[in-house]
């Protein structure tokens, strides 16, 4: 069995892309009609963090994202690290929550766009 490697935490970023403009004319805009640089940067950071949480490249297909999600969820499942102690189980639970949130956000984003 391969040893479990718990990565450092991904920056505390929520993976919610409800406000992301997918070119449909909807989305967060400034009074002038353009997205502000800070909004664009925040969205870019969220997208990068979601891809990083699943360890896939930014051009990954939905199939690749789903495959990575299943692999990562299995690898970091809290029951698999239960024998290593409560601190590892807690880290694994946190990591699985990040993985789930990233997968859901990227799946919604792919469906929109």
Summarize, please.
The chain is an all-alpha fold and 113 residues long.
Describe this structure in words.
With 113 residues, this protein is an all-alpha fold. The protein has a domain at 37-112: Helix Hairpins, CATH 1.10.287. It is built from three helices and no strands. The chain has helices spanning 37-53, 62-75, 86-112. Helix 1 packs across helix 3 and helix 2 (62-75) packs antiparallel against helix 3 (86-112). The longest helix has 27 residues, at 86-112. The protein is elongated, with a radius of gyration of 16 Å. 19% of the residues are buried. Residues 1-32 have low confidence and may be disordered.
Share of residues in strands? under 5%
Q: Could you give the order of the helices and strands?
A: HHH
The third-level CATH topology of the domain at 37-112 is: Helix Hairpins
In angstroms, what is the radius of gyration?
16 Å
The low-confidence parts are 1-32
Helical amount: 40-55%
The CATH architecture of the domain at 37-112 would be Orthogonal Bundle
The first-to-last residue Cα distance is 39 Å
Tell how many strands the DSSP assignment holds: 0
**Shape by Cα distribution:** elongated
What structural class is derived from the secondary structure elements? mainly alpha
Helix run count: 3
CATH 4th-level superfamily of the domain at 37-112: DnaJ domain
Using the coordinates above, name the CATH class of the domain at 37-112: Mainly Alpha
Could you give a short account of the major beta sheet?
none
